[in-house]
């Protein structure tokens, strides 16, 4: 039985996740702003082994991150929704854009990252840990 399911805007790409997320955070980096089209992206991290695409096949776009790692964005070629991110530095983890989850009521981000790049007022009033860049040891936010 899946833990949760999701889809792109048009429904051409659908997925399910069988395990619990290992992390959730709001990312304010420029890359997440540009690729999501929003002030920031709420990202849900899952194990690649727990994610199954049940319908469709997303297109992919790759680029180099500030870290030098290769980022792979997966999106629907029909409606343009970005569903997943992959990072060559963490090959066993896939990032799911929270807005694509059918029932995101469980999504509670653990931190704001790249706050130094946040749009004005984007993090005002949040009571979760906030880091100007990537936390020195981001693994503290990952559960096994």
UniProtKB/TrEMBL annotation:
Record flagged with keyword NADP: no
PANTHER family: CENP-V_GFA DOMAIN-CONTAINING PROTEIN-RELATED, GFA DOMAIN-CONTAINING PROTEIN
Origin organism lineage: Bacteria, Pseudomonadati, Pseudomonadota, Alphaproteobacteria, Hyphomicrobiales
Family matches, as Pfam families: GFA
Organism name: Roseibium alexandrii (strain DSM 17067 / NCIMB 14079 / DFL-11)
InterPro entries the record matches: CENP-V/GFA, Mss4-like_sf
GO molecular function terms noted in the UniProt entry: carbon-sulfur lyase activity; metal ion binding
Keywords: Lyase, Metal-binding, Zinc
Domain annotation CENP-V/GFA: ranges: 4-132
Entry's family note: Belongs to the Gfa family.
Protein name: CENP-V/GFA domain-containing protein
Keyword Cytoplasm attached: no
């Amino acid at each position: 039985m899946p833990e949760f399911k999701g889809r792109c805007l048009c429904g051409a790409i659908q997925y399910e996740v069988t395990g619990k997320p290992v992390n959730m955070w709001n990312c304010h980096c420029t890359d997440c702003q540009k690729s999501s089209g929003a002030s920031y992206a709420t990202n849900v991290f899952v194990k690649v082994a727990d994610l199954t695409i049940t319908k469709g096949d997303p297109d992919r776009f790759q680029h180099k991150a500030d870290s030098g790692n290769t980022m792979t964005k997966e999106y629907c070629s029909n409606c343009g929704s970005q569903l997943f991110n992959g990072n060559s530095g963490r090959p066993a983890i896939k990032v799911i854009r929270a807005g694509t989850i059918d029932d995101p009521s469980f999504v509670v981000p653990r931190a704001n990252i790249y706050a130094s790049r946040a749009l004005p007022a984007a993090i005002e009033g949040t009571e979760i840990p906030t880091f100007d860049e990537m936390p020195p040891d981001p693994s503290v936010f990952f559960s096994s």
